[in-house]
Amino acid sequence: MTGATDSTPAPVVAGVPVVNAANALTALRLVLVPVFAAVVVVSGMRHAGWQTAACLIFVVASATDLVDGWIARRFALVTSVGKVADPIADKALTGAALLLLSWYDRLPWWVTAVILARELGITALRFWVIRHGVIAASRGGKIKTALQILAITWYLWPMPALLVPVGPWIMAAAVLVTVLTGFDYVAQALRLRRPAR
Length: 197
Fold this sequence. Notes:
The protein is mainly alpha-helical and about 200 residues long. It has one domain (about 20-195): Four Helix Bundle (Hemerythrin (Met), subunit A) (Up-down Bundle). Helix content is about 70%, strand content about 0%. It has helices at about 20-45, 50-75, 80-105, 110-130, 140-155, 165-195. The radius of gyration is 17 Å and the shape is globular. The chain starts with 20 loop residues before the first helix and ends with a helix.
């Protein structure tokens, strides 16, 4: 687990077993991705009961990101495997949710494209500068993640008609913060690379 909820990257501790509680939660999140996707497909985004189930699975999976990070830092269980698997699990969960929402015409495709392009781009950027330093999760990055989770949850939950229009506003805020923090991470990456030249 990378410790996405902390702005200071947790160091990898030598001798920590790969099979530990933090990594188990990350693995659980990966396992829940296809389960979540299957339940969304079964719901067709029309059956309230299945929609509720899909939303709850998404919330539980998202919550494991907070818990595994806390466990990894609190009990010094940070591993190299966790640092790689955690962001993959995060992107897989968010990506699956966005793609399915767009597939069922609940979310414009351009929104999904913008968010996924940013997420994949920043992940690639982290690997690009990894020899020179770590791009730590910023406060804006945490807000971005919270807004994305809230927006996706809002779209997944079978909201009453009166509350449905709130969803696009939350998603608009998520997209805005996603793009702005993306520029911030690019600036960080360039600063890390500059001394190397």
